[in-house]
Write a structure and sequence with these properties.
single chain, binds nicotinamide-adenine-dinucleotide, Putative oxidoreductase UxuB
Length: 261
């Protein structure tokens, strides 16, 4: 196996990645993976303590990272993130939209506030970042690549998780549309849809009954480990490995979306 061949295919040296939501479980794992593949990483999110800890961990692993806070639903905050990244690293070659929130109640109990909160973070936040960074990347000589985080619920709606499922289905649709828009401008846009990975935003919804149902419908009969997202993320983000992939959705779900009784 040739190291230089693999490095050429998957190496991200000299490239900068912003990971919004890298303060969380999945975003943190993706940020670490990108850094270990050579990228300079801006860890971003709303929790400075977590963000600093994540950037420190990346440094301990031998990577380069800074933390800068962002509120994904604020245009001004995203603009600031862009400016700080450019000042520090000089380019923005990759963007991962991994911020997300959830809510789980019977359909008739969803409040307007909760609906708006989930749609705002998961869908509008993704849209605002794409709208800011895709045209910017298109003006860079090397273009860029955006990875939006969907969910298996984009494809198979999950009971009690109405706003979340709708938001993730819309993220897939939006990503395809933005991918089409920038396809000739060296900007690729793809979606990674995780299956079930225990984390903060879904702890409350993973009760005993639901876990049993999930396992019954997961051919691999287990939850995912956050690191298991990294290979697909690097493939989609890499300008070499992913060069002809845009508008695609990859499920990393232990077979959940392939399961039919
Ligand atoms: N864990 C899973 O099983 C799973 C499955 C499918 C999809 N996802 C998606 O993966 C992504 C990451 O989720 P996770 O499981 O790591 O959850 P998590 O709760 O650990 O991380 C989510 C992060 O997003 C941040 N965030 C929330 N609102 C924000 C905002 N307005 N601006 C900036 N950051 C904000 C939170 O502070 C948190 O750090 C989410 O989009 C989630 O929907 C997760």
């Amino acid at each position: 196996m040739s190291d230089s061949y693999l490095r050429g295919l998957f190496g991200l040296e000299g490239r900068t990645a912003i990971v919004i939501g890298a303060t969380g479980v999945l975003g943190g794992a993706i940020a670490e993976g990108l850094a270990q593949a050579g990228a300079k990483v801006v860890v971003s999110g709303m929790n400075p303590e977590r963000g600093d800890a994540q950037a420190t961990r990346i440094a301990e692993l031998g990577g380069e990272a800074i933390f800068h806070p962002v509120d994904a639903v604020s245009k001004a905050s995203l603009e600031e993130l862009k400016a700080v990244t450019l000042e520090k690293f000089g380019s923005i070659d990759m963007l991962v939209n991994c911020a997300g929130v959830n809510s789980s109640v019977p359909y008739e109990e969803i409040t307007e506030e909760d609906w708006d909160r989930v749609l705002a973070t998961n869908l509008t936040g993704t849209h605002l970042a794409c709208q800011l960074f895709a045209p910017f990347m298109a003006k860079q000589p090397g273009g860029g690549s955006i990875l939006n985080i969907g969910s298996v619920t984009a494809h198979l709606p999950l009971s009690r998780v109405y706003a979340y499922s709708a938001s993730k289905a819309a993220v897939v649709n939006l990503s395809q549309n933005v991918a089409r828009e920038y396809a000739t401008q060296k900007v690729r846009v793809n979606v990674l849809c995780p299956g079930f990975f225990p984390a903060e935003q879904n702890r409350k919804i993973l009760d005993q009954d639901r876990v049993a149902n999930i396992m019954a419908q997961t051919p691999m009969k287990r939850f995912g480990e956050p690191e298991e997202l990294v290979g697909a993320a690097i493939t989609l983000l890499s300008p070499t490995a992913g060069s002809f992939i845009t508008g695609a959705t990859i499920y990393v779900d232990g077979g959940f979306t392939a399961m039919r009784f």
